[in-house]
Design a protein that fits this description.
The protein has 507 residues and is α+β, with helices and mostly antiparallel strands. It contains 12 helices and 22 strands. Helix 7 packs across helix 8, helix 8 crosses helix 9 and helix 8 packs antiparallel against helix 11. It is globular, with a radius of gyration of 22 Å. 51% of the residues are buried.
């Protein structure tokens, strides 16, 4: 993110990971006579996010848009999942809609709420190691929930989504944690005159009675926070990327001409990223230019969300806008394909996206990486004090869960990668980046996975290096640059301000 995914096949590793995450709270999976309580997978930053006892294989989301973005959408969510425990109850994350009815394996089930959980009690318990299908008939409210951030974004002509970090369950019932990726099928019925685009590739379109139903399906698993649906009076622009990759951009129809010069850069940007880390990991890509002021850009899978004004208002230089495009594109590899197992692993997403943003600016616009990293080093101690070390971010304040997106996981995490390159050398670092993106494609990862792979690729024990750089209260000395020093707040004001736009406009 820059601040301004119907299959029943699952790897054993994914099921094991889900079971391990759930183990700490498995004692809560008790008989239906026990009190109804919210659960979670034990994430350090969001303890009630996600749910134990099952691993989602697929979501089938169906929305009916009434033609107004201030009225609830009628919706049906179907979840196919593999159980990892005996379940008398099933908790889903859902907090901003009205549930009308629920079925489990085709049979009616009772339901209630606890915190931000929808708690479902099937007629018969569901045993460990079986497939279950949950269908929820509900509404999805595009008017923001009081005191909550994210979910539906109301645009000038419709809707889009911004679900990071914990807002997908403001839109649809789900297991809203990045550790549980799934395949997505998304159907939206909208009045004629509207265009709908969602993650993945088109899988059908049907017109009936003055409305059209648009269907999209992902070919790769996706975290709930990366779901995207655009509904509006939009134009869809098509072009071809490397290896025949279909690229489609969604723009407000009246701004099509002004946006085209920016959008035509995408195929070359994809080719640039492929030259660094290997082949693009998904079935399509494109930019969604939303007529809305969000304060951020977002790497929703295969269709990154951008504020239209970033491109049509001449506030930032062209090289900077292009580097933001690279930031969200880089996330398709780092954060989307290779996803975080927990939210404390966020630095792996944002650090890498910031790294390639800076590398692109260096190679394409002559903005030296060294200068940016030296400025970041000067500010790093203050970032750590404010937000925590890169791999151990501080818990966000209540009601501000996007508060985890602080400079320590952007510039501070990119600084870790720079230090690593200085420590092991550029050739080993570049091999590591390619191996990371390739080995863990479509998977979820932890910081420890990265540390182990770095040691494997470099042939060195890097435990002490990573302990200081990822978890230390103070920033370690920069390898190869003994003259770099932290700067006092007054000294840091100018360089920190210069770096701030690049760290505050995207996730």
């Amino acid at each position: 993110m820059r601040l301004t995914p119907h299959t029943r096949t699952r790897s054993r590793r994914r099921r094991t990971s889900a079971a391990l995450l759930a183990s700490a709270v498995s004692v809560c999976l008790v008989a239906a006579s026990a009190p109804v309580v919210p659960l979670g997978v034990g994430d350090r930053l969001f303890p009630y996010l996600g749910n134990p006892g099952y691993d989602v294989a697929s979501y089938d989301l169906s929305f009916t848009y009434p033609g107004s973005n201030s009225e609830p959408l009628q919706a049906v969510t179907t979840i196919d999942a593999w159980t990892t425990a005996d379940l008398d109850r099933v908790n889903l994350d859902f907090a901003h809609g009205t549930v009308r009815s629920v079925e489990v394996d085709g049979e009616p089930a009772t339901f209630s709420t606890a915190g931000e959980d929808l708690v479902i009690t099937p007629e018969d318990s569901v045993p460990d190691g079986t497939w279950m299908r949950i269908t929820v008939w509900h509404t999805s409210d595009p008017v923001p929930a009081e005191g909550r951030e994210g979910g539906w974004v109301r645009t000038a002509d419709g809707l889009a989504m911004a679900n990071q970090a914990d807002a997908a369950h403001l839109v649809f019932p789900c297991n809203d944690h990045p550790s549980d990726k799934a395949i997505f099928t998304i159907r939206v019925t909208a009045p004629d005159g509207h265009t709908v685009v969602a993650n993945g590739l088109p899988a059908g379109r049907h017109r009936s009675g003055g409305a059209t139903t648009w269907t999209y399906r992902t070919q790769h698993p996706m975290a709930t926070e990366l779901a995207q649906v655009s509904i509006g009076r939009s134009s869809v622009l098509h072009r071809t990327g490397p290896h025949g990759l279909p690229v489609r951009d969604v723009v407000p129809a009246k701004h099509r001409k002004a946006l085209e010069p920016w959008l035509e850069k995408t195929p070359r940007q994809i080719a640039w990223m492929e030259s660094k880390v290997g082949r693009y990991p998904f079935e399509t890509y494109g930019l969604l230019m939303a007529d809305a002021s969000t304060g951020f850009e977002l790497e929703t899978q295969t269709l990154s969300l951008f504020e239209r004004e970033l491109f049509t208002e001449s506030v930032y230089p062209a090289w900077y806008v292009e580097s933001i495009m690279i930031h969200e594109l880089a996330h398709q590899w780092f954060g989307n394909s290779v996803g975080p197992r927990t939210w404390s692993d966020l630095w792996l997403n944002e650090g890498h996206a910031t790294w390639y943003e800076a590398l692109y600016a260096e190679e394409q616009a002559g903005k030296p990486m060294r200068d940016r990293m030296k400025a970041a080093y000067g500010a790093s101690d203050r970032w750590r004090a404010s937000g925590g070390p890169p791999a151990a971010p501080k818990i966000p304040e209540p009601g501000r869960k996007t508060g985890i997106f602080r400079p320590n996981v952007y510039g501070g995490a990119a600084l870790v990668l720079y230090a690593l390159r200085e420590e092991i050398g550029r050739p080993a670092f570049e091999r590591l980046e390619r191996a990371w993106a390739g080995r863990y494609r479509d998977d979820t990862v932890t910081t420890d996975d990265f540390v182990r792979l770095a040691a494997e690729i470099s042939g060195r024990d890097l435990d002490d290096f990573f302990q200081g750089w990822l978890y230390g209260e103070k920033t370690p000395p920069m390898p190869g640059h003994p003259d770099w020093k932290p700067t006092a707040p007054a000294e840091a004001a100018a360089p920190a301000k210069a770096a701030a736009p690049a760290q505050a406009a995207a996730r």
